[in-house]
Amino acid sequence: MDLGIAGKRALICGASKGLGRACAESLAREGADVTICARSEPALDEAAAAIGALGGGRVAAVACDIATDAGRAAVLAACPNPDILVNNAGGPPPGDFRDWERDDWIKALDANMLAAIFLIKSTIDGMIERGFGRIVNITSGAVKAPIGMLGLSNGARAGLTGFVAGIARDKKTAGRNVTINNLLPGAFATDRLMGMFDEDARTKRMMTIPAQRFGDPSEFGELCAYLCSVQAGYITGQNVLIDGGAYTGTL
Ligand code: NAD
């Protein structure tokens, strides 16, 4: 299927590794011109070169922290009018909420809620004017099934999820072919997840998932590209789980 996004401008945050990078690869393969960002330069440069070698759209890279005003200004200077925006940043650490101070909460909100909200604010009116826009926020399966020790993530991502549910249904947005969806990963074999377990624990964790394996980041990237496609124009305001069957509810 041709997703119809060749030549579209895509801005993908947190994209030197893991799920963000997989989204950038899938979008570039479809011919979108991608601007990627991440905090550390060597990994970002390596990712940009590898994505460029796929032979799809053009690739630009900006080393910055997307959780800051300066970081967002830098990516928007490189890609001022994206047609596609993928919001992503590293998740906050786990822990006991009794140990978290205001600063811990502010960091989580900056990275996993406000960065996405401010990038949406800066880009959505251009999408509305042009009559095409696709926004995908990478959140977490924990939005549907919160896990106690991930309190910082649960709180920040719930805030983003509620905000998106409201604006996605604005007729000025949905009525102008601008969609906003959240993509909720279960367990994916990224550096971050693999770094959490030794081999024994990894196998045990995998066996708790009905699919009996971790997700491959490329599966996530392909679903992201579909949500950014011309064909997905009637899907908006959704929380789309991709978790190998791990979530047991019906809604
Ligand atoms: P990862 O650590 O493999 O990759 C994260 C990428 O984002 C890297 O390129 C990193 O440099 C970049 N990044 C992190 N913080 C940034 C910032 N402030 N500014 C710019 N770039 C930044 O992580 P991942 O596994 O791909 O996870 C991506 C998101 O999905 C995280 O929020 C994570 O909590 C969430 N998530 C992941 C899984 C999983 O199984 N991998 C499951 C649930 C939720």
Question: What does the model show?
Answer:
This protein has 251 residues and is an alpha/beta fold. It contains 9 helices and 7 strands. The chain has helices spanning 18-29, 41-52, 69-78, 102-130, 151-168, 171-174, 191-194, 199-207, 217-227, and strands spanning 9-12, 33-38, 59-63, 84-87, 133-138, 178-185, 239-242. A 7-stranded parallel β-sheet has the order 3-2-1-4-5-6-7, with helices on both faces.
Task: State the gist of this model.
The protein has 251 residues and is an alpha/beta fold.
Give keywords.
251 residues; alpha/beta; seven-stranded parallel sheet; globular; binds nicotinamide-adenine-dinucleotide
Main sheet record: 7 strands, parallel
Distinct ligand kinds: nicotinamide-adenine-dinucleotide
What is the N-to-C order of secondary-structure elements (H for helix, E for strand)? EHEHEHEHEHHEHHHE
Uncertain stretches of 5 or more adjacent residues: none
Give a count of the beta strands, DSSP E runs of length 2 or more: 7
**Strand content range:** 5-15%
Helix percent band: 40-55%
Number of helices in the DSSP assignment: 9
Shape: globular
Write down the Rg. 17 Å
On the 0 to 100 scale, the average pLDDT is: 97
Q: Can you list the strand order of the major beta sheet?
A: 3-2-1-4-5-6-7
